[in-house]
Structures are given as C-alpha cells and as structure tokens.
Amino acid sequence: MFFKNNSKRSFWIKILHNELSTLDVLVTRRPDLYANFKKYTLCLEEEENRLHLFSCSKLTNIIEEIWKTTMEYFKKEILLLYQDHNKKEDKDFQSQNLLKEINNTLDYLKLTIFNTYNSLLNFTLGLFNKDLTKKIITFLPKNCTSTTKIRDLLTRTSNHFRNLFRSKVWNFRCESINEADHTRGLTKKIKKNKPPINTNLNKLTNSNNTKSTNDNTSNKKENNIKPIKFIESEIYDWIKYDRKWLNTP
Ligand SMILES: [Zn+2]
Fold it and tell me: How far, in Å, is the centroid of ligand 1 from the Cα of 41?
C-alpha cells in the first residue's frame, strides 16, 4: 500500500495490529494508571477497544457521515474509470444507466461492509473479500472497467475512509483522553515514567495503610487513579533511600 504521509501509514499499521492506544491496550501497558479507566469517554457505557470505535452508538452519525463522503469519492472515481475506458462510446448511456448501476453498487457496498462491525473494521484496514471486486463488476455495465482497476479503487476508497476515520474519530478521541488524563493529574511525565512493579506496590500500600482492614471506602479511593502522585513519591523515596527493593523477589 502506498502512503504519501508517514502518520497515515503509522495509523494504518497500528490499527491493523491492534496497537492503537485504546484503553484496553493502555490498561495492559500501564495498569497502574488505567486499571479503573476503561470506558470509552464519549459514551461512558462500554469499554474502549478497537472495535468499539466502530460500534459505539455515539459514533453512528459520525461514521455515517464519513461513509457518505467516502462514497462520493467512490462514485466520482468510478465515473472517471468509465470515461477513461469508453472514450469513444455513446455518452447517453452513461447518463441514463451508469448512475443507476453505480447507485446499486453503493447500496451493495454499504450492505456488505456494514453487515458486521468486524466487516467495517476490515474494510477500514483495507482487507476485503476477493469476491467483492467480482461482485462490483457485475453491477456495472459491460466494459465499464477492469477487475484490477476496481480492486485498486477499493483500496483507495478504504484509504479515504480510514483517513477520515482517523481525523474525525480517532484524533477526536485522543483529544478527549488527553483532557481526561489532564483532569486526573496524569501528566506527560507520569505517563512516560516506567510503570511500578505491582507486587512491591501492593506490599507498600498495605504496610503503610493501618486502616486498610476497617476502612473499605478509603481503600477503594486508594486504588483509583487520583493518588498516583502519592504512589510516585513513594517510589521516588524507595529509589532514593533504598534501591534494593527492585531486586527483592
Ligand atoms: Zn460506546
């Protein structure tokens, strides 16, 4: 796949390998920061993962809008392919029949790609069933274009959709997570620091918390993200006064 732009390529690779920093991924990387922060910020109903960015009801309108724009692109490109292929042909045919055929193609694409959220994800990744190309050819008038050109157009259409998805859904989502992190006191520095080792962290929290057995509510608060500064300063003290804790089993 050809990319003019590095960040677009990087987005494609990340979404393909499920390496986007969605909250389900973040929680495995930094459970200390994200264990209690798994829900998608826009709906606050379901946990955020790659597929949820396609299935969330709060995103339906945006995704519809992106699809519409993408299909306008597809339609324009099909017409160009047709014109290219039939320079000497009767132009009346184009206006009367071709638009109808193209609209049938668009309906078919929508039905197939929006059949499941997984098929929508696959389309975004640029992965489609081989039959899709053949099927599209059957909708179009004979000699309209070639299979190779349609396959190439599908790839370009997928890129078009993914780029819009990146700017309208993903970048917007990143802004709201950054805002939420900021509110929770998660600075860039904290996020860049290496995560603490869990077992040692638990030992420390328990030994220092004399009320732990009696006071469940304060315990719950302790487990939330807010006291991260407290945890950070404890780790700093360990390192400053006794580095050996890192080596204890
Ligand atoms: Zn949702």
Answer: 8
pLDDT one-digit tens code per residue, 158-214:
999 999 999 999 999 999 999 999 998 999 899 888 877 754 444 444 444 444 444
| Tens-place pLDDT, residues 132-144 | 998 898 888 777 7
Annotate 109-141 with b (16+ C-beta within 10 A) or e (fewer). beebbeeeeebbbebbebebeeebbeebbebbb
Query: Would you state the torsion angle of the CA atoms of residues 154, 155, 158, 159, taken in this order, to the nearest 10 degrees?
Result: -140
Q: Rounded to the nearest whole angstrom, what is the distance from the C-alpha of residue 60 to the centroid of ligand 1?
A: 10
Kindly give the distance from the C-alpha atom of residue 62 to the centroid of ligand 1, in angstroms, as a whole number.
13
State if pTM tops 0.70.
yes
Report how far ligand 1's centroid is from the alpha carbon of 77 (Å): 34
Write down the domain spans for the chain: 6-183, 196-246
Rounded to the nearest angstrom, the distance between the alpha carbon of 54 and the centre of ligand 1 is: 9
Compute, in angstroms, the gap from residue 177 CA to the centroid of ligand 1. 14
Cα of 52 to ligand 1 centre, how many Å? 6
Predicted local distance difference test score (pLDDT) of residue 113? 96
